[in-house]
Amino acid sequence: MSRAFVKEQEEAEPHAELPDRAISEHPNFVTAEGLAAIETALAQAQHELARAHAAGDRGQIASAGRDLRYWSARRASAQVIAPPTDADKVHFGSTVTIEREDGRRQTFRIVGEDEADPNRGTLSYAAPLARALAGKRVGDVVKAGHGEAEIVTIG
Fold first, then answer.
1. Where are the chain's structural domains?
2. Which residues in 14-55 belong to E strands, given as ranges?
3. Is residue 54 exposed (0-12), middle (13-18) or buried (19+ Cβ within 10 Å)?
4. Three-state SS at 141
5. How far apart are CA 91 and CA 85, in angstroms?
6. Buried/exposed 76-94: b ≥16 CB within 10 Å, e otherwise
7. How far apart are CA 13 and CA 62, in angstroms?
8. Of 40, 29, 116, 30, whose CA–CA distance to 71 is shortest?
9. pLDDT for 51-107, tens place per residue?
10. Contacts of 93 (CB under 8 A, 6+ apart)
11. DSSP 74-139
12. Is 150 helix (H, G, I), strand (E, B) or coil?
């Protein structure tokens, strides 16, 4: 094998053609905090891209460029939804406590897709549980996973 061929393979760009991050088909509803998080992520991606260019790190350039495209698209499509003004029904931005059939109580705030983290008590409005809760009232029972849950409080 010629050395030129080996060198060419070594210089190949394994990260040059990273696929773009998937963008949800759902509207990009966000809370004010979610918009701030998107703007922080966008600034971080810009910083990472500049740093990668300065270092000449082509793999990092591809990765940071992909993140920058994603966060730019998310910022451009973000629709800030005002906090709910009532606690009669579950809305985007509501904090809802449910009681599952096994007695466990869980509290979630319904937020945008990019800010959702169920382990931290935030649930995407597009998630099945959030969709089941939307428009419901205290005392209503909804499908929650393989069972049911009752809405205990709405805040």
1. 14-80, 95-154
2. 29-30
3. exposed
4. strand
5. 9
6. eebeebeebeeeebbbbbb
7. 9
8. 40
9. 999 999 999 999 999 999 999 999 999 999 999 999 999 999 999 999 999 999 999
10. 31, 81, 82, 83, 84, 109, 110, 111
11. HHHH-EE-PPPS-SSS--TT-EEEEEETTS-EEEEEEE-GGG-BGGGTEEETTSHHHHHHTT--TT
12. strand
Contacts of residue 80, defined as CB under 8 A and 6 or more positions apart, other chains included, come to 30, 31, 32, 34, 35
pTM for the predicted model, two decimal places: 0.83
User: Which tokens in the block code for residue 23?
Assistant: 């963008």
* CATH code for the part of the protein at 95-154: 3.10.50.30
Question: For residue 106, what are its two tokens?
Answer: 């869980």
Residue 17 pLDDT exceeds 80: no
Residue 78, φ and ψ in degrees, nearest 5: -65, 135
Distance CA 9, CA 132 (A): 52
